[in-house]
Write a structure and sequence with these properties.
The protein is an all-alpha fold and 517 residues long. The protein is 74% helix and 0% strand. It is built from 20 helices and no strands. The two termini are 17 Å apart.
């Protein structure tokens, strides 16, 4: 009888891994796949660049507002129920995006899609960690990280192909089969977690958090287009958001059942891991947003050609995820994090050197391949060690808080790097062509293409990209100091190394004898 339970448990955890991959992959893919389709969407609907940009940022805005509540929803109504419902809403929103007759309804559908996708990644991570022991989490996270890290790199390639050779609406339709299969597998294989019916929703916390995060992400999304001088769309919303989020922190720290458990930051590995993840988010999302702009705006590449060059980062991430999962138990997380950080530092320097107006485009392939190889070594190892020892109902709270911070940093990094790029472009153009600095201030970020620019302006813009990648390099450096303060995970403690059995986390629910539910 006991053997049957163990076999059922072993089978079930792998079914959980196979199931949650669908939701995590779809939600992350959709944050990047739209970028290469935006120029075509803008043209078809006759919208200006600022309005069209909300097709991309509306998704992030909605996710940023809804994701703080995902931890409460999972604990109150069950992770399975919330996960499946979120995937249904995400899939329905994708269908609405595909049939949208105008830009306004497309933006509304993207907001609905983002609201549905908000909980998918944190719940996927929480369910995954709830069924794997501490010793096995590195390997499981390595497998889980393959589609999760490939999604951002695959997005521009797939989006570029569909936009150029099929129709931009298929950028959204591609989610339908993924969503349908994911819902079917979730209903079939996932078990419901115990419900905490006594849990009460933190209404004040949600109002302050959702409004504060919404205004912050709204202001940051407009920063690249309107500048800090715009009180209505940038500086005003950001200042109000700072006040609201400050009040939110005070409310949460006094609440008995807070919306976000900020006290998790008392755990050394969790707070240090969050800092490193934020650095990794800048390194991942910043260049991931800027490279398509560089390749299409300055070098005149088609959406699909640019996507093919970026695809090598995804292939490197696949290899890095597998390698990270195999080496995690052997080398330990701290060594892998240092390897990943070194990789990011080196490839950021290479990007800064390579990003010229006439560089060999084929040289981007090995840079992206190596960069993709190192990202999972850092990000997966950090996530695993940060959540070590966190079990039961704290898991969805911890993963939710982690995703909230990643969403904020992802938007913040894109806004900061885009504005830094534009300011450096204006500086370099002004130094070369004093009379036309203003005309080309936004070149390469939704402006005219490289073939239409005077040669000196092309070189000025290339210098701006180089300056931006140097900034990314500088931002990676502080993480080196943080890694040294991480504690080894519990399974690598002296007792564990002497052969004591690994600590098995609390299961999400009772295990049936003889097979899966």
């Amino acid at each position: 009888m006991q053997g049957n339970v163990e076999r059922a448990s072993d089978n079930y955890k792998w079914w959980v891994l196979a199931t949650v991959v669908f939701g995590a992959f779809a939600s992350i893919l959709d944050s990047t796949i739209v970028n290469t389709a935006l120029p075509r969407i803008q043209h078809d609907f006759g919208a200006d660049l600022h309005l069209a940009s909300y097709v991309a940022t509306g998704y992030i805005l909605a996710a940023g507002v809804i994701v703080p509540a995902s931890g409460f929803l999972a604990n109150r109504f069950g992770m399975k129920r919330v996960y499946v419902s979120s995937l249904v809403l995400f899939t329905f929103g994708s269908a609405l995006c595909g049939v949208a007759p105008n830009i306004d309804l497309l933006i509304a559908a993207r907001i609905l899609q983002g609201a549905g996708g908000a909980a998918l990644f944190p719940l996927s991570f929480a369910m995954l960690f709830s069924v794997f022991s501490s010793e096995e989490r590195g390997k499981a996270n390595g497998i889980f990280g393959i589609p999760v890290l490939v999604a951002p790199a695959l997005g521009p390639t797939l989006g570029g192909y569909l936009t150029q050779y099929v129709d931009w609406r298929w950028v959204f339709y591609v989610n339908l089969p993924v969503g349908i299969v994911g819902v079917a597998m979730g209903l079939r294989f996932l078990r419901e977690t115990p419900l905490r019916e006594s849990l009460r929703f933190d209404v004040p916390g949600f109002l302050f958090a959702s409004s504060g995060l919404g205004l912050l992400l709204y202001g940051l999304s407009n920063l690249a287009y309107d500048g800090w001088d715009s009180v209505a769309t940038v500086s005003g919303p950001i200042l109000i958001s700072v006040v609201l989020l400050s009040v939110f922190v005070l409310v949460v720290l006094r609440a008995k059942m807070p919306l976000l458990h900020l006290r998790l930051y008392r755990r050394r590995n969790y707070v240090l891991g969050t800092i490193i993840v934020l650095v990794g988010t800048v390194a991942l999302f910043g260049p991931g947003f800027l490279l398509p702009q560089y390749l299409q705006g300055l070098r005149g590449q088609t959406p699909f050609a640019a996507g093919l060059l970026l695809l090598w980062g995804g292939l490197g991430a696949v290899a890095g995820s597998i390698l990270s999962g195999q080496l995690y138990n052997r080398l330990g997380p701290k060594v892998l994090i240092w390897i990943g950080l070194t990789d990011l530092l080196a490839t950021s320097i290479l990007l800064a050197v390579w990003t010229t107006a006439d560089s060999n485009l084929n040289l981007l392939i090995p840079i992206m391949l190596v960069r993709g190889l190192g990202l999972p070594m850092m990000l997966q190892s950090v996530n695993t060690i940060a959540l070590d020892g966190i079990r039961g109902p704290d898991l969805p709270d911890a993963t939710t808080l982690n995703v909230v911070m990643r969403n904020i940093m992802g938007s913040l990094s894109i806004a900061i790097l885009t504005n830094y790029l534009q300011s450096r472009n204006t500086f370099h153009v002004g130094a070369l062509l004093h009379g036309v600095a203003g005309r080309f201030a936004h070149t390469g970020v939704g402006g005219i293409t490289g073939n239409q620019m005077p040669l000196p302006v092309q070189h000025a813009l290339a210098q701006a990209y180089q300056d931006t990648y140097i900034l990314v390099t500088i931002l990676v450096l502080p993480a080196y100091l943080v890694v040294g303060f991480l504690r080894q995970p519990s399974w690598r403690s002296p007792g564990a190394l002497r052969g004591s059995p690994p600590v098995v986390p609390e299961r999400a629910g009772p295990l049936p004898v003889g097979g899966m539910e």
